[in-house]
Amino acid sequence: QVQLVESGGGLVQAGGSLRLSCAASGRTFSSYAVGWFRQAPGKEREFVAAVSWSGGSTYYADFSKGRFTISRDNAKNTVYLQMNSLKPEDTAVYYCTADRARSSWPGPPGYEYDSWGQGTQVTVSS
Questions:
Q1: How does pLDDT run across 6-32, given as a tens digit for each residue?
Q2: Per-chain mean pLDDT for the chain
Q3: What is the full DSSP assignment across 37-95?
Q4: CB 122 within 8 A of CB 20
Q5: Which of 51, 54, 90, 101 has a 20 to 30 Å separation from 13 between CA atoms?
Q6: Contact 55, 72 (CB under 8 A)
Q7: Is the Cβ–Cβ distance between 18 and 83 less than 8 Å?
């Protein structure tokens, strides 16, 4: 398994941008697809975006299409989530997850992904 560490969260005004990073340890990172999820207080965790192991395929939730962009740099063992035009409703803890088996995202409810990071807080003020 890989270990994941998120960074890049913070406080931003509505309309602003943030870039989250998900750094992985382990030589096999390039064989993992990586996704981002988020969880706001009192709400269930929801899928945000994902990228295949090669970076050739990306997947987005409806709310993130057109505003967020996921990418990866396997040479740096890092996946990025560029978030633009942020809204107060984007406020949440953002988690990255890695999985070797998934060819489509998100997985079905209850699916157990291989690894999770500890999360990074994103707060968007109005």
A1: 999 999 999 999 999 999 998 788 899
A2: 96
A3: EEE-TTS--EEEEEE-TTSS-EEE-TTTTTTEEEEEEGGGTEEEEEE-S--GGG-EEEE
A4: yes
A5: 51
A6: yes
A7: yes
Q: Which amino acid is residue 28, in one-letter code?
A: T
Q: How far apart are CA 114 and CA 87, in angstroms?
A: 30
Place of tokens 């998934």: 102
Per-residue pLDDT reduced to its tens digit, 63-82: 999 999 999 999 999 999 99
Judged on CB neighbours under 10 Å (0-12, 13-18, 19+), 126 is: exposed
Residues contacting 41, CB < 8 A, separation 6+: none
What's phi and psi for 43, nearest 5 deg? -120, 160
Report the distance separating Cα 90 and Cα 5, nearest Å.
20
d(CA 78, CA 4): 9
